[in-house]
Amino acid sequence: MKKNILITGGAGFIGCHVVQLFVQKYPEYHIINLDCLTYAGNLENLSEIENSKNYTFEKVNILDVEALTSVFEKHQITDVIHLAAESHVDRSITDPLAFVKTNIIGTVNLLNVAKSYWKNLENHLFYHVSTDEVYGSLDHGGFFTETTPYDPQSPYSASKAASDHFVRAYSNTYKLKTVITNCSNNYGPNQFPEKLIPLCINNIKNNRPLPVYGKGENIRDWLYVVDHARAIDMVFHNGKSGETYNIGGFNEWMNIDIVKLLCQKMDGKLGREKGTSEKLITYVKDRAGHDLRYAIDASKIQKELGWEPSLQFEEGISKTIEWYLENETWLDNVTSGNYQKYYQDHYGK
Ligand code: NAD
Ligand code: DAU
Q1: Which of 129, 133, 187, 208 has the least CB density, counted as fewest CB within 10 Å?
Q2: What is the 3-state secondary structure (H, E, C) of 205-221?
Q3: Which atom of ligand 2 is nearest to the CA of 131?
Q4: pTM given for the model
Q5: Is 165 within 8 Å of 182 (Cβ atoms)?
């Protein structure tokens, strides 16, 4: 059976890398990118593949069941890779309901449409892309594994945890073939500059303060976005139905150390005197309920599917900085208009 794969959220940061990989690597598949283009969705992310014969874009909101059903019928969707979501923790603190709508109701809509459209559920896969934040926060020891109990702490992670539970419930109750991956923090080209790394790159470039929450001692495990896309490719093709795979970079960093690394690298690239950008570091009010540490044990996907991160962090960070410096128009476009209002409301002047 020919595969017509629906990728949701394909105009966003991770989604655009997944769409690009699938369109280029699998010319025999038809890739349908479904995205309603929120502030985080951007078709400029897909300019390299937008004219490919095996690619179609559908501007649809996953809250619109009728439109979702039409897309399944029109393209005879065989499989789903679901990435569409509200993804920013800070926004979930100010507007939790938006996260309930897209991340929970939107996911259930998609499950329902897939379940009713697919006649023989055995032949189809519903792949749900999720986050390590569903496991809660770690102290300084230990790792999240696939069997760590869920303990979400923010409205964002609570909404993602609920969506994971619904996917498992559909697998158990209706025998839908599903797979879930829970990944750590991604960084790389095309990330919207509300997230720590691109926000700092943009602010260093423009000589603006670098807002570090609390003492900057929170820890995240960072993975280059293309390595996440490669993992999704492997799990989609070789993962076991009903399973969960954790994906992470084995790469823990304290926030303040990342911000300093960005400052050092950008001083070099911008020809500034050493130490110039570090003066921009500004400690600001901590995020409410800020999770201390995330760290993924990714040994299951390594052992069972042979996946490994391909890039070292310092190399990935250099490539990322270069991408943002070379794509000034992209950055200017996404930081004009509503971004200015978001920035002022969140960080003040
Ligand atoms: P993003 O915010 O950059 O992109 C989200 C995309 O979803 C955008 O293109 C947006 O337009 C689209 N979208 C949002 N609401 C929609 C709706 N109602 N209908 C249709 N489309 C909608 O997010 P991202 O960082 O690329 O994350 C993608 C997925 O990966 C999310 O499910 C997120 O939870 C998960 N994830 C992200 C990270 C990370 O570090 N960014 C890590 C692990 C997992
Ligand atoms: O762990 C996976 C998750 O990683 C994904 O599921 C989320 O979609 C993604 O947004 C990301 O969540 P974080 O909250 O960890 O990412 P963010 O870039 O917002 O923040 C990273 C760390 O930096 C976190 O400890 C908060 C801190 N931070 C963030 C911002 C935006 C700051 O100190 N200052 C800032 O201005």
Answers
A1: 208
A2: HCCCCEEEECCCCCEEE
A3: 6
A4: 0.99
A5: no
**Domain locations in the chain?**
4-188+222-252+290-313
Reduced to 3 states (helix: H, G, I; strand: E, B; else coil), residue 293 is strand
Question: What b/e readout covers 150-184, taking b as 16+ CB neighbours within 10 angstroms?
Answer: eebbbbbbbbbbbbbebbeebbeeeebbbbbbbbb
- Say which ligand is closest to the CA of 105: 1
Q: Which two tokens stand for residue 37?
A: 């283009």
Tokens 């690239």 map to which residue? 269
Query: Could you say which ligand is closest to the alpha carbon of residue 9?
Result: 1
Closest CA to 301 of 226, 252, 248, 251: 248
State the Cα–Cα distance between residues 196 and 132, nearest whole angstrom. Answer: 17
CA of 262 to the centre of ligand 1 (A): 24
Between the alpha carbon of residue 233 and those of residues 115, 140, 185, the distances in Å are: 23, 32, 18
Distance 84 CA to ligand 1 centre (A): 5
Residue 282's closest CA among 205, 191, 215? 215
Within the chain, which residues score under 50 in pLDDT?
Answer: none
Q: Which two tokens stand for residue 228?
A: 């996440």
pLDDT for 152-211, tens place per residue? 999 999 999 999 999 999 999 999 999 999 999 999 999 999 999 999 999 999 999 999
